[in-house]
Amino acid sequence: MSADESTGNDFIRHMIRRDLESGKHGGRVVTRFPPEPNGRLHIGHAKAICVNFGVAEEFGGECHLRFDDTNPLTEDAIFVEAIQEDIRWLGFDWGEHLYFASDYFEQMADFAVQLIERGKAFVCDLSSEQIDARRGSLTEPGLDSPHRTRSAEENLDLFAGMRAGEFPPGSRVLRARIDMASSVLPMRDPVLYRIVDGAHHRTGDRWHIYPMYDFAHCIEDAIEHVTHSLCSLEFIDHRPLYDWVLENVDVPSRPEQTEFARLNLSHTVMSKRMLKQLVDAGRVEDWDDPRMPTLSGMRRRGYPPESIRRFIAGVGVARRDNTIELAQLEAAVRDDLNRTAPRAMAVLDPLRVVVENYPEGQVEELDAINNPEDPAAGVRKVPFSRVLYIEREDFLEDPPKKFFRLAPGREVRLRYAYFITCTDVVKDADGNVVELRCRYDPATRGGDAPDGRKVRGTLHWVAAEQATEVEVRLYEVLFSAHDPADAEPGHSFVESLNPASLRVVRAQVEPALTRVAPGERFQFERIGYFTADPDSGPGRPVFNRTVTLRDSWAKLAKRR
């Protein structure tokens, strides 16, 4: 990332500043975000949202939210509401500028008639397979449709019949008459309209023909007087068609298309089609599964929206595609939560500890710091009693040299509590450690020894009698492959799904964690950041691991 990109001075902002200085577009800045309502938005869309809404906000302009609802077979009003929720969650709002492609269906059909009357479009009877077969290649020109020379009168009559529902789907399309030898493949007489038999979520059964995106998008921009049509690089080859349509119909304004690099994230797929496959096949719970790269999944997992915006700002806006490591996004989330998440103690794999010299039936209330990064967060009370739980991995009967946690005869600190020393190990019939017997030093209350002696290990813990058992979902990366979409021929991206992407454990947590609302975030001390899931019930929260406490990707890379 360049210094300019890190400060928001990317090539798009430079372009807009030049346009404003020159008076281009009348000094206006109007952008748009045009999602198709056929699924939930993902992290890649977040970049487009931040760019379009961000530059409009920065330059005192407006950003339109416009739904590309031109395919009734795949779209649903449910996704219209969900997409609006996602955008608002990211911190953006379109105000009064909410639009739909379907708002302009009548105008688009009129523009199609204009193209026919001007000899710029014709009705073609070839099937989609036949059209593709005659399109040619980068080195060979395509073949003209046998219907290319139809008269304007015949084309107008056939197009009217298409609109009236006189022909079945797939029997006819409206194509632009441009150049089958063009070096730009999208300019080889592209399809503008097709016949679709399906009810639209807004217009019902009124329409039998629907415009293609390449035809609809530029017209929508022009009708809305968009000045800067910002889109990702995959549309760069379609820009000549964008301009051609605007040049050949009587639109009220002339927007300009500018492309920027999309967000590619490692160990992730950036395709709603692929994500839909995972949902439909039951590979994930739903679009908001916390393993999914959807904004709803990240929200449920506990990612703060501010961290996503900060991550995208750090990535910057460039002209060339590249892949950003998922660890970079996780680092942004971790930095945010380190400052804002209150601390709590939870034991994910409990091992019972009996403090033999602590009075039976006694319970102390000890002070625990809520957030060392935020002095104003204060302290909370945590109970301490004779029987505790610690993490099983914090004890080894025969520890290696650099293991500084609990072992037979070794003294460690219990965070906010006392020094304890392991005096005995209890095992079951199979030789598994099931309980530790320890002694505590009453003089070390608060975790420090008055005689100045030091210990190397500090452990988190919970009091057994006062603890609550909760469900904790430990999420890992969804795909083990760095680029899941880049599967070898004959293989599918689903083959790189990580079978260990979710592990569910029954954990013991301190009492304060039983009184949380869905969406509340915490740092489980020494473990990671966790968020209460919407599945939580009264007094029985379910926690999702949002991100690990430390970056574990370096170790992962070494293992590979």
Give me the Rg, rounded.
Answer: 30 Å
Terminal residue distance: 27 Å
CATH topology of the largest domain: Rossmann fold
List how many beta strands DSSP finds: 27
Number of contiguous helices: 14
State the oligomer. Answer: single chain
Widest sheet: strand order? 12-25-26-27-23-24-13
User: What percent of residues are in strands?
Assistant: 15-25%
Structure description:
With 560 residues, this protein is α/β, with parallel strands linked by helices. It has three domains: 263 residues, Rossmann fold (3-Layer(aba) Sandwich), CATH 3.40.50; 115 residues, Ribosomal Protein L25, Chain P, CATH 2.40.240; 124 residues, Ribosomal Protein L25, Chain P (Beta Barrel), CATH 2.40.240.10. The chain is built from 14 helices and 27 strands. The strands form seven sheets. It has a seven-stranded mixed β-sheet. A seven-stranded mixed β-sheet has the order 21-18-19-20-14-17-22, with no helix packed on it. Helix 3 packs across helix 12. The longest helix is centred in the first third of the chain and has 16 residues. The protein is elongated, with a radius of gyration of 30 Å. The relative contact order is 0.10. The N terminus and C terminus are likely disordered.
